[in-house]
């Protein structure tokens, strides 16, 4: 098959750059990687751990092409909202996992409810409502792994897959050397600080407007879709995007599968949500200066655009709160997440992105030279277009989605508003979180509506 920007595996770009290898060798490397998830009986009683596990499967299968293997208790009940009455084991099988009786000894493992082995070949996921992290030492879990919100579990699952992939792919072999984490309630504090545990969640939003349904937009939906809404038919999504799914999206989009190629992203996301009982409205036009929020539409906009120009009109659409995130693009930064909230921030979107020249694409010249020498039948502009694409990974999207949705939930439950959060997953213990000048959220979420979580 001829390579093109629509078919090229975006995660393989990082392997090509790191190992200075051909596209074929990069794919062989991905296909040689596998990961093993080992669960104790605690997986039967912890909703955050279940959110971490299913996220590890969904993101892991797109990075570890050699397979995601699970050892877990049989007949585990599903604590997450999921369509149809199935055991959690069946859900994970349908999601792409391989359930096995025994875990091979010479492999890298992610532990759920179990301590790490006495070597450097395992991580332990730990999470509750607001705290997410991984342990690399056989120590007591620093908090109770309970809760009714999946968000921190999703972050910890994405983080564990990220760190494992960085190590096993050779991109950053030291990424699993120490215990790290984040508090989604107070990302400006150490994740184990006494004030980082956060309160019980009592309110959830009842309306969302998703701007862009690519890598990031699908991650937002994954995070929202696992929230414990008591009546999903009371929750409405406005889904806005104009693109169709291409093969390259499958390696990064949490809702994309190979049989979705050619489908409009709005239709795929709508189907995924409506299967879970939510209401959706779709618009397949580009967000621009003419887009305005009217009547009872959501006052909260969640932005997942991949271009600077698309963000310039965010404050003109009539939202009371906009949460947007963006990711890095190359080998060194693809796991970097930047979150902003608008309006009433110290800088507007036009002040942040108004001078960005999008006609000048960042070209990865290492990748470009390798593609030019490749045996594949690619010529002309194709190598340049591929070399100008960002390295992208579903596990980074899952973590970004958790940060964005945590910001919205925090806003409804008396928490702090952050104007900007910068989190590099490989150095997650060094998060930069800038509080908004107003401090805590006040009226930003008031008109959007909410439902009780009690």
Can you describe what's shown?
The protein has 454 residues and is an alpha/beta fold. It has two domains: 33-183, FAD/NAD(P)-binding domain; 203-452, Rossmann fold (3-Layer(aba) Sandwich). It contains twelve helices and 17 strands. The chain has helices spanning 12-19, 23-32, 47-63, 88-95, 151-168, 215-225, 265-275, 308-311, 349-353, 365-373, 382-387, 394-412; strands at 35-39, 68-71, 98-99, 109-112, 122-127, 131-135, 180-183, 203-205, 207-211, 236-240, 279-283, 300-303, 321-327, 336-342, 416-424, 432-440, 450-452. The strands form three sheets. Strands 11-10-9-12-13-14-15-16 form an eight-stranded mixed β-sheet, covered by helices on one side. β13 (321-327) and β14 form a beta hairpin. It is globular, with a radius of gyration of 21 Å. The model has no long low-confidence stretch (mean pLDDT 93).
In terms of topology, how is this protein built?
Elements: H1 12-19, H2 23-32, E1 35-39, H3 47-63, E2 68-71, H4 88-95, E3 98-99, E4 109-112, E5 122-127, E6 131-135, H5 151-168, E7 180-183, E8 203-205, E9 207-211, H6 215-225, E10 236-240, H7 265-275, E11 279-283, E12 300-303, H8 308-311, E13 321-327, E14 336-342, H9 349-353, H10 365-373, H11 382-387, H12 394-412, E15 416-424, E16 432-440, E17 450-452
Outline of the structure:
This protein has helices at residues 12-19, 23-32, 47-63, 88-95, 151-168, 215-225, 265-275, 308-311, 349-353, 365-373, 382-387, 394-412; strands at 35-39, 68-71, 98-99, 109-112, 122-127, 131-135, 180-183, 203-205, 207-211, 236-240, 279-283, 300-303, 321-327, 336-342, 416-424, 432-440, 450-452. It is of the alpha/beta class and 454 residues long.
């Amino acid at each position: 098959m001829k390579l093109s920007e629509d078919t090229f595996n975006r995660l393989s770009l990082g392997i090509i750059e790191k190992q200075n290898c051909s596209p074929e060798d990069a794919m062989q490397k991905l296909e040689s990687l596998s990961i093993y998830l080992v669960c104790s009986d605690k997986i039967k009683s912890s909703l955050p751990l279940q959110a971490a596990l299913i996220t590890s499967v969904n993101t892991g299968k797109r990075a570890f092409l050699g397979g995601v293997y699970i050892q877990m208790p049989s007949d585990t009940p599903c604590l997450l909202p999921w369509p149809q009455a199935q055991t959690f084991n069946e859900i994970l099988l349908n999601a792409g996992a391989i359930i096995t009786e025994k875990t091979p000894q010479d492999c890298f493992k992610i532990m759920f409810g179990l301590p790490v082995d006495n070597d450097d070949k395992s991580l332990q996921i730990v999470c509750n409502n607001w705290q997410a992290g991984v342990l690399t030492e056989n120590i007591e879990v620093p908090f109770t792994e309970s809760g009714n919100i999946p968000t921190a579990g999703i972050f910890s699952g994405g983080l564990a897959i990220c760190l494992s992939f960085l190590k096993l792919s050779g991109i950053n072999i030291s990424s699993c050397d120490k215990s790290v984490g984040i508090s989604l309630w107070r990302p400006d504090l150490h994740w184990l600080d006494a004030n980082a545990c956060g309160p019980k969640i009592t309110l959830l939003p009842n309306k969302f407007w998703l701007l862009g349904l690519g890598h990031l937009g699908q991650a937002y939906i994954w995070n929202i879709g696992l929230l414990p809404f008591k009546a999903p038919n009371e929750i409405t999504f406005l889904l806005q995007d104009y693109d169709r799914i291409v093969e390259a999206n499958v390696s990064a989009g949490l809702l994309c599968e190979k049989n979705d190629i050619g489908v409009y992203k709005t239709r795929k996301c709508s189907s995924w949500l409506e299967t879970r009982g939510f209401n959706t409205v779709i618009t397949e036009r580009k967000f621009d200066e003419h887009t305005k929020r009217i009547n009872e539409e959501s006052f909260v906009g969640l932005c997942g655009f991949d271009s600077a120009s698309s963000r310039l009109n965010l404050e003109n659409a009539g939202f009371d709160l906009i949460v947007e995130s963006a990711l890095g693009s190359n080998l060194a930064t693809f796991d970097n997440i930047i979150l902003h909230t608008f309006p009433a921030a110290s800088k507007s979107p036009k002040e942040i992105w108004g001078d960005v020249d999008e006609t000048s694409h960042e070209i990865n010249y290492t990748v470009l030279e390798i593609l030019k020498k490749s045996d594949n039948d690619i010529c002309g502009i194709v190598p340049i277009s591929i070399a100008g694409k960002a390295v992208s990974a579903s596990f980074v999207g899952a973590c970004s989605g958790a940060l964005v949705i945590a910001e919205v939930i925090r806003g409804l439950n008396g928490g702090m508003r952050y104007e900007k959060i910068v989190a590099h997953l490989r150095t997650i213990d060094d998060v930069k979180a800038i509080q908004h000048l107003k401090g805590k959220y006040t009226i930003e979420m008031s008109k959007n509506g909410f439902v009780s979580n009690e």
